[in-house]
Amino acid sequence: RKSTFLSLSDEHIRGAPAALPTIEDIYAWIFKIYSAAKMSAECNIIALIYINRSLALSGMPLGAFNWRPVTLIALILAQKVWDDTSVRASCFSSICPEYSKDQIKRYEIAFLRNLEYSGAVTRELYTRYYFELRDLFEMANHGHVFPLGVLTQKRAEQLEISSCGFRMQKRRKRRKEKKMRSPG
Fold it and tell me: Do residues 83 and 163 lie in contact, with contact meaning Cβ atoms separated by under 8 Å?
């Protein structure tokens, strides 16, 4: 399990910073991806859920060499689940040129394995993360209003349906891959 997560590493990139990132580094990285891919704000919360789930299931912490690819892939998967249209891997490799299209695809597969192919996000889980982030934001920004509103009932239902459908899609894909590998 841990070896899968280790494959999500920046170590191969010459000049990749070896120090842990600052809050500003993390913000700049996420903002670059978020704005270039024109993601919905909700994708950030879903990505955080995926990162936490992946870390819990793999037992590996985020570190200096894996936080960027882990965050990138979590955002990509969140966009696939939430947004009506998602950006292709080739576009993400132009947004983040330090990663090739093939690397992004390999990272995505490793990350999905860490998630045990579960992209499901319940409205309760999303809501818990939303309010925790809102509280942190408002404490750090001296009471300023969190820029993202609460999900409507309809949007919460859409999230559950699309994220559960995401899990089923990956299961079918795995079954299809197994059939292709097994002798006929």
Answer: no
Parts of the chain with a pLDDT under 50: 1-3, 14, 168, 180, 184
Determine if residue 49 is left, alpha or beta; phi over 0 gives left, psi from -120 to 50 gives alpha, anything else beta: alpha
Distances (CA, A) of 18 to 2, 64, 72: 20, 5, 18
The number of C-alpha atoms within 13 Å of 110 and in the hemisphere containing its C-beta is 22
CA 8 to chain centre: 12
* 128-157 tens-digit pLDDT: 999 999 998 888 888 788 888 888 888 888
Please provide the DSSP assignment of the chain as one string: -HHHHHTS--TTSTT---SPPPHHHHHHHHHHHHHHTT--THHHHHHHHHHHHHHHHH-PPP-TTTHHHHHHHHHHHHHHHHSSS---HHHHHHHSTTS-HHHHHHHHHHHHHHTTT-----HHHHHHHHHHHHHHHHHHTTTPPPSSPPPPHHHHHHHHHHHHHHHHHHHHHHHHHHHHHS--
Using an 8 Å Cβ cutoff, are 101 and 90 in contact? yes
Residue 48 CB neighbours (<10 A): 19
Nearest alpha carbon to residue 133 among 145, 116, 121: 145
Share of the chain above pLDDT 70, in %: 77
